[in-house]
Write a structure and sequence with these properties.
With about 300 residues, the protein is an alpha/beta fold. It contains twelve helices and eight strands. An eight-stranded mixed β-sheet has the order 3-2-4-1-5-6-7-8, with helices on both faces. Its EC number is 3.6.5.4.
Length: about 300
Amino acid sequence: MFENLSERLSGVFDRLTKQGALSDEDVKTALREVRVALLEADVSLPVARDFVKAVQEKATGQAVTKSITPGQQVVKIVHDELVHVLAGDAGEAGQLKIDQIPAPILMVGLQGSGKTTTTAKLAKRLKERDNKRVLMASLDTNRPAAMEQLQILGAQIGVDTLPIVKGETPVQIAKRAKTQASLGGYDVYMLDTAGRLHIDEELIQQAAEVRDVANPRETLLVVDGLTGQDAVNVATEFDDKIGVTGVVLTRMDGDGRGGAALSMRAVTGKPIKFVGLGEKMEALETFEPERIAGRILG
Ligand code: GDP
């Protein structure tokens, strides 16, 4: 995911650390290259600009350039700033608010983003790591295949799905899921809403109605990490219209340029909570800013 960015940055920093003494001008030149590398990785312009400015403020002046290992100090500052841009100040990654029984989790996102797969991956994780009893329900009444897909995945991972009843509306399904989850002693119920290829009125309206009925503890937006700045735009729009509590970035196993991960928090203010790293049910990880910053800097 970050291969190109990582390669570009290591080139810049190799030169910097080999140089020994550094002037403020050397740092500035290096940071100009960092800015270009970020933009090429599809990081949004204001985020790249703020990033470089923050590093520059910390890395120029006596303390760093006059130190014994100025290059390494600059790398350390860049690392810390990467962690900051990835996660903000809060450590919400991997955490879900499950503070009532049953706790509803609403899954939203565009069609093809990996929403249904991620719903099942998360259910498996909640079951296996947190010992939760989970019920999953598909609300995609337009696409019977999507409903069946969730059932198949549920059977595969040993997580119950709400039986499919033809002719129900998404709101009716959400209500039935809630009743079933309460009566059946489930800790969590997950509502996999319908996706569309683009954000349209109907999609938003439907998700909003379901949200109002379910009163979710978490509304997780699933977005395709390969789509760079588009992913961030989708997140902004979903958040404006429905309100999201966290983001799951999928396809982080692919060769996207990484911009979505780097811009998401800064632009939307929402935490990335998990990342999808493949099609398998195990391929979901907690989003760990430290590790990602480490990976970017090689
Ligand atoms: P939905 O339409 O948003 O529900 O999307 P699906 O869950 O059906 O996923 C669409 C395709 O993307 C499927 O083939 C998934 O296996 C695949 N997919 C989902 N998440 C990931 C991921 O993190 N990495 C990769 N490589 N593929 C994924």
